[in-house]
Give the backbone structure.
Amino acid sequence: MTATNGAGEPVYVYRFGGGVSDGGKGDKNLLGGKGANLAEMASIGLPVPPGFTISTAMCARYYEEGEAFPESLRAEVANGIAHIESVTGKTFGDPANPLLVSVRSGARVSMPGMMDTVLNLGLNDATVEGLAKVSGDPRFAWDSYRRFIQMYADVVLGLDHDRFEEALEIAKEDRGYFLDTDLTAADLKALVAEYETLVEELWGKPFPQDVHDQLWGAVGAVFGSWQSERAKVYRRLNDIPGDWGTAVNVQAMVFGNMGDTSATGVAFTRDPSTGENGYYGEFLINAQGEDVVAGIRTPQYLTRAAREAAGAKPASMEEAMPEVYAELAGVFDTLERHYRDMQDIEFTVERAKLWMLQTRSGKRTAKAALKIAVDMASEGLITEEQAIARVDPAALDQLLHPTLDPDAARDVLTKGLPASPGAASGKVVFDADTAEKMAASGEDVILVRVETSPEDIHGMHAAKGILTARGGMTSHAAVVARGMGRPCVSGAGSLSIKGKDGVMRVGEREVKAGDVITIDGSTGEVMMGAVPTVQPELAGDFGTLMTWADKVRRLKVRTNAETPADCRTAREFGAEGIGLCRTEHMFFDAGRITAVRQMILASDEAGRRAALDKLLPEQRADFAEIFAVMAGLPVTIRLLDPPLHEFLPHEDAEFEEVAKATGLEVEALKRRAGELHEFNPMLGHRGCRLGVTYPEIYEMQARAIFEAAVEVAEKSGAAPVPEVMIPLVATAKELELMKAVVDMAAEAVFTDKGRRIDYLVGTMIELPRAAIRAGEIAEAGEFFSFGTNDLTQTTLGVSRDDAARFLGVYVEKGIYARDPFVSIDVEGVGALVEMAAERGRRTRPDIKLGICGEHGGDPASIAFCEQVGLDYVSASPYRVPIARLAAAQAALAK
Ligand code: PEP
Ligand code: MG
């Protein structure tokens, strides 16, 4: 991947700015997102401070060589600095006219706040005087030096940050000041001297005065921050490979803190929360970049409209700096047209001159992603197909879940910013570790912090929602919560949080740790107690994108459902049939479980038939209701597949109930249950093994299916299309025997009722032997449905019920890229699926093929199903829209 120069040596440094662009937006892997986009902006003529990027390939080499740099890099970096010097006319380390640079990380994908940055590098005891002279502003020069020492000591030298903050606080207190800005040039100069003493005390050496030493220290620190704990946690949560590495961007400093014609800000070309087409952002006059994100000062609005909508007083940028604002708005439009996507931008204004510091594809909520994709296609900026590809199917999940019931009573405690949409209720927790612990034990928690930092990530992930007292819409909490899809209310300024005491207050009201609150990330409201929710709206942009997706997808999408309510939800979400109705789930109901237990515990056929007679009418009524809801769409009903341990009675009261129903002694029932105990129920007497040993069970179920089908056909006119599915088949013989039972029951019903129904009998392919012998099995089987839950369990030899205890480590160590019960193991389980599909088709060319394991709702697995040409996927109701979109993306990717 690394480019080479004329002499065949690798090139690690890429320049940009001043009419030069060694790279461009296609080079993200090598230059990182930030570096590639800086080069791209420079190449399309936007005002970018000159600089250079040290590539991610250097990061890899840095670690390979024991955290050291190759000699060849020195000349390259010197060349890069010379480039910046020639464009700016300043010289690095020159006391007369010093060049200052920023040193920032930049990986392939953005990892907000995870890695290190150093600003104002190039200042020392001599150059600070030069800066004071050139800028005509000694206070600015000494403040920059003060900030630089503090940042360098923290990030590069690893010294205790608090000691510097303390010194700053004392300096203010001694002089009776309240704000940092009250400090004069002389005060700051004295503070710098104190900082220098502090560095020497803590580090044992004086603060580095050689600007080149400063630069190499900072470059090493940025590469080093790739392996920091917080960066590692972030990568793990976001599936970012550890070997990508970061690039380092060295760039001429521009200053937003040179008085009232200077400013700094962040902006999105559209609203990242709602997707509305309008500029959206915040800026601060006379401030440096980090001040905006850190939430120390409250930023001002970018546009007048946004300021007015919020009822805020301080002037918007549009009003305060109309000319620069107009230029910035022009840049927004150029960037959107150029990248054909919503951009997230950082800029600085130095003495009325605009500089672009960053652009990237903006992170957005699912709602915004949807709206922006649909709008951009309607505006002709992208095609419908590109719009389909733009929306992450998994993120749709955010839109499909309930929002607060508008009619429910609300006891509003306070209001903050609507930082990340969605509603969440849970117990108040004030620190990330407790949030993680409580969530692990199944409790819903809301993480409440004054503001969040990268150290809080694990707690934010574990929480149902996040509430902060400080920070704007682009604060750490807001950005990270949106990325994670967690509802978030930020900057709820009236909250007084005393996390250590386990309380927060709003005026007179007090909320203790453990009290339940509700937050609404779409309005910013914070409420006491749990507020009820309502189902989401599926029309509008969502409906439009789904229609586009349906036009291009080939795979049909069905649902796994067994209650009429779930079937209805799934149909509203666009399910085209039922791919799996697990009949044993229909028996979990308290009213029925006793009859099921009676059936299981019966010691002979007569006893079983007595129980089955009770179950028949109930099953028939269930099926009739489902057929009616599905109105002529195919319905795959799987005959009983109960892992016995899930159904056997355990408690005395449960045995007593069965005893009452059967007239048998509790002791006799307990003895029978003992006989039925299995060591390995998942591999035990389940699936068709039950039908083979007790055919009367499947006979009853088949009868119920056909009687219900005839009944519904007569009533509604839309004839049901039952597909009867036999579970856990390993051999063709098992399927033949069970098919005979089903066919016989069908004939009996049809003769009895004087009406026939078309139906299919097929099987699940969920054991390796069935996949291998699929050619024979297809002789009796009219369809296959891949049960990839059991197929994964039996192919990997990993128990479905016990996997969670160790699979996490397997994924961490890269043995499996993802949990194979979530995303199909393409090389192993996938190979069996592919083979069975091929063998089944050879025997029966028109055999219907589907998948009904959990993988049927996982986008990556759906892509695999498209590749091997299955006919449909089946997913739980809420994942049906995800599957529709993923199927469309898979068809487009082919
Ligand atoms: C499967 O094994 O993939 C399947 C769908 O069946 P169950 O999960 O009910 O065992
Ligand atoms: Mg199964």
About this structure: The chain has four domains: 13-252, 263-364, 401-534, 541-584+613-644+682-893.
